[in-house]
Amino acid sequence: NILVAIALLAAIFRIYRADVGKRLQLERELGRAVRNGEIEVMYQPQVRGDGAVTGVEALARWRHPSGTLLSPDVFIPVAEESTLISDIGLEVLRQACDKLEAWSGAAHTRHLRIAVNVSPMQLMDEHFTPSLTAVIRQAGIDPTLLELELTESALSTNTAAIVDKMRAIETLGITWALDDFGTGYSSLATLRQLPVRKLKIDRQFVQEAATQDSAQRLLGKIIEISQVMHMSALAEGVETVAQRDLLIGMGCDHFQGYLFARPMSESMLDEWLTRQ
Ligand code: C2E
Ligand code: CA
Ligand code: CA
Ligand code: CA
């Protein structure tokens, strides 16, 4: 009946409008947050099988004026719908490069690398490469200590253009890691063409491997792929000694997860590093 249909449509429209309104408000607040310096970076250590720290991953947080620390799962997807992702990404890059510069003075930190997440939209922004070059030059850091992470799913569209961009950036000395590997749809043919040094195995595989035999075999195959491709393999979300030992047995060479350390503020990280 037509009246019911109209009422239903009106209700759907009201819900939709409320949603869009909320998103726009979040977008406005986020723009202000970037200008006000509310974007903070936490750092999570990455280690080798023998426990030695090789570097850290930079993870964005939003220090909201209300006092809460907001997770990137809340604001990165909103930022990705506008050019805000480029502003946030650049802010994270700046902080990470400043950190690398601060580390370059001490023997126990000068070799450490920082991995920074890059969104596909941000990568394809024409300002990205010039901004990246400028940030590196301003900080005066060795670009080989900077690693950029792109999620495997970013390769599902626009593959050729993305691969070209990645190659151009590699010539600056920066290395690439493929994030959340195993959850995207990149073909092995694409993988071979990528200027990628490291596969980051999604924590889903790591966590399921303990209980599911098929997941465990899959994990082994993913590590084998990394070896065939001459890439290193980093397992994400390692929470237990059993997971770590299983992964070491399979030939995985890098690890990240709560077993070793949680993401930490800059000052906590420096303390943690002196204790290592
Ligand atoms: P990601 O890049 O896959 O980062 C790893 C996430 O796993 C982080 O969540 C980290 O805190 C969490 N994690 C690490 N070890 C463990 C563990 O042992 N167990 C479990 N359950 N979780 C673990 P976080 O910091 O909340 O970041 C979530 C996502 O937000 C990131 O996933 C990344 O996709 C995105 N993100 C964070 N910072 C940035 C950024 O600066 N730029 C962009 N584009 N995305 C970012
Ligand atoms: Ca990442
Ligand atoms: Ca990941
Ligand atoms: Ca992720």
From TrEMBL:
- Keywords from the UniProt entry: Membrane, Transmembrane, Transmembrane helix
Full protein stretch here: 160 to 435 of 435
Which domain of life does the protein's organism represent?
Bacteria
What are the EAL domain coordinates in residue numbering? 23-276
UniProt entry tagged with the keyword Transmembrane helix: yes
Query: What is the protein's species of origin?
Result: Luteimonas flava
Q: Which chain regions cross the lipid bilayer?
A: 1-16
Q: What is this protein called?
A: EAL domain-containing protein
The UniProt record lists the keyword Transmembrane: yes
